[in-house]
Design brief:
With about 250 residues, the protein is mainly beta. The chain contains 1 helix and 17 strands. A hairpin with a 2-residue loop joins strand 16 and strand 17. Keywords: Cell adhesion, Disulfide bond, Glycoprotein, Immunoglobulin domain, Membrane, Repeat, Signal, Transmembrane, Transmembrane helix.
Length: about 250
């Protein structure tokens, strides 16, 4: 009798382990234009050679790291640093780390994936003015005017005005805008007002030159115009009278 033949075939079997956890290690804050490091930490995952670690800012992928040369079959821990140089627009952005096991055509679909909790990292920067740093304004003597100064910065800037103090001048800061309010303007208010917006990372300075126009100038123009009108009327009357005599 013929004995049954045994068939032997080598199977490419991959035993994988879903990551125990995925997290982000990041600085407390980042400084605009300065490179910082955000690290993805993946714990207890196997096999490492199929692991792909990605860092996202919102929906934008910032980096990707694979471990194809790691032949370890047992669960491992991986810490993957990614360099990040933030801009002002990145303040308040959410960062996420994604660990993915790319097990090939025979593996489960979609690929086993685990995400870290999102993390917001503040971006700090020195103040920058929201209007021109030089300004010239005018007010009529006895009138009122408000000088404004505002800047964007993180942390939010504080404001300091420099000018000779006067009883008719009041400073008010509200909702990120600092103002100098002048009432009953006089020649003593005619000067340069300096506004300094500052935080721990720098200072932005705005200069406002205020010119107080005297009422006397307006009165003079009224007198000149009035005299001109009278002279004109006198000439017209004289011309009419002369015409009557001539007839």
């Amino acid at each position: 009798m013929n004995e049954p033949r045994q068939c032997e075939e080598k199977l490419d079997l991959v035993i994988y382990k879903y990551p125990q956890s995925v997290s982000l290690i990041a600085p407390e804050f980042m400084k605009i234009g300065v490179e910082s490091t955000i690290t993805c930490q993946v714990l207890d995952v196997a096999p490492a050679r199929y692991l792909s670690v990605k860092l996202y800012k919102g929906d934008e992928q910032l980096g990707n790291r694979s471990f194809t040369h790691n032949s370890t079959r047992f669960p491992v821990n991986e810490s993957v640093p990614f360099p990040v140089t933030p801009t002002r627009a990145d303040n308040g952005a959410e960062y996420t780390c994604v660990a993915e096991l790319q097990l090939g055509p025979g593996g489960p679909k979609p690929n086993p994936t685990k995400r870290s909790p999102p993390l917001k990292i503040p971006v700090v920067y020195k103040p920058s003015l929201l209007s021109a740093d030089e300004e010239n304004v005018e007010v009529r003597k006895g009138g009122s005017i408000v000088l404004k100064c505002s800047a964007d910065g993180n942390p939010a800037p504080t404001y300091e005005w420099k000018y000779p103090k006067a009883d008719n001048v009041q400073e008010i800061t509200k909702d990120g805008v600092s103002t100098v309010n002048i009432t009953r303007a006089s020649s003593s208010n005619d000067r340069v007002y300096e506004c300094h917006a500052k935080n721990r990372y720098g200072v932005a300075t705005k200069n406002i030159t205020l010119t107080v126009k005297g009422r006397g100038q307006f009165v003079c123009w009224v007198v000149v115009i009035g005299v001109g009108v009278l002279v004109f009327l006198g000439l017209v009357v004289g011309f009419i009278c002369y015409g009557k005599r001539a007839t």
